[in-house]
Structure formats: structure tokens, C-alpha cells
Amino acid sequence: MGESSAVSSAIGLAGLQVNTGLDVAPSENDMRRPERQTAQSRLHDLEESLCVRAIGIEHDFAASELVAVDLPDTRLMRPPPPEWLIERGLQKMNLVAVHTGGCWTVHKSSRCVGASQAQALDALRQQVPACTHCRPDTALGLLE
After folding, report:
1. 103-137 pLDDT per residue, tens
2. Domain ranges within the chain, ordered by starting residue
3. CA-to-CA distance for 137 and 117, rounded, in angstroms?
């Protein structure tokens, strides 16, 4: 009877209310019956398992709140996107096109490299074609 009270109080501390009916001591005749004894031991094991799980969940929840508070906002740590992009061909030496930084055609392309305004102007002057969608030559003030 003392063990079930301790488990019940531990479960109550964990925030769960479980009424198992084990607070009443079983009679001598009930304890002699093996099926009654195994059912009660299973119930006791289940009660202990629930208590351990409830405490573990509370611990995990508290730890996740601490981690969420400690992490900085990664959006603030990212460098700004480049203003100009130069798209390279399959061979790294071939320049395919010049784009503005927000061009949707090369949004996630791995073949583009960031460029400064001077590099973009230089590429356009060396006859690298301007993107027909974002028109970097117009944005740079250089018309064909």
C-alpha cells in the first residue's frame, strides 16, 4: 500500500491524475489468486512507467524552452544577397549572363557567383549577354 501511494503522489507531482484503485489493500484471498497478483503487478508497473514518462516529458519540454531562448535569430546573421550575379557555364571560364541579385531565373542556381557593380559593368562591356528577364544593363544605366 505504501508503494502505490508513493507512485500515485509522484504521478500527482508530474501533473497527471491517475486513479488506479490501489489505495485499498487487496484481501488475503485475492493475493493468493495468481491472475489477480499478475494483474496488480502489471498495473503497478504501468503506473511506474507513466510516472517516469511524465517526468521525462516535463524535463524535455523545459529543456526545449531553454534551447529556444538561447538560439540567436539566424536571419540576422546571414550576409545580404549580392546586388549582381554573373552566371557561369558548365566550364567555369565561360560567362553566360549577367543578372540582378533578385532575378527569379537563377534564384537557386549553383552556377551563379555574386559580383560587385564594377564587375557586372565590366562583364557587360566584354559582351557577356544581359538577362532578358531582369535587364541588369538597364538597371546599371548601360543600354545596348
Report:
1. 998 877 888 899 999 999 999 999 999 999 999 99
2. 2-70, 84-139
3. 11
